[in-house]
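Question (not urgent): is this output format expected?
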Amino acid sequence: MPRLPAIILACLALAGGLVAGCGDDADDTSSTPAAAPPAAPPPPAASSASSGDVVEVGMKDIKFVPADVTAKVGQKIEWTNTDGQTPHTVTSKTDAVDFDSGSMNGGDKFFFTPTKAGKIDYVCTIHPSQTGTITVTK
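Got this back:
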């Protein structure tokens, strides 16, 4: 039975090595997974979706998204039809301001830059219930 103690010793040595790896060494960080960076906080809710100097508005599910935006005088507003095969228009309903995109297919873009402060109401003439408002500030 001289082999039995050798097997037992080998098992104990192996178990000892495993237990040693589970210690609480402050210097040993290799067995501790790196903490994931904290998630970025969500952006604050705003009345306009802007990217730099451009206010962006989408067209999705027969709606302008967002429907109400704020822009400064001289700031470009960009509408993008993201509604697949559904055509849309962007047409001013405000008498003092005149713009009309004409029919826009999926992926088409339309731009408008306001020149004076005020409120501009607009509509999709294909879907009259699809409306939006631009509040233009100085």
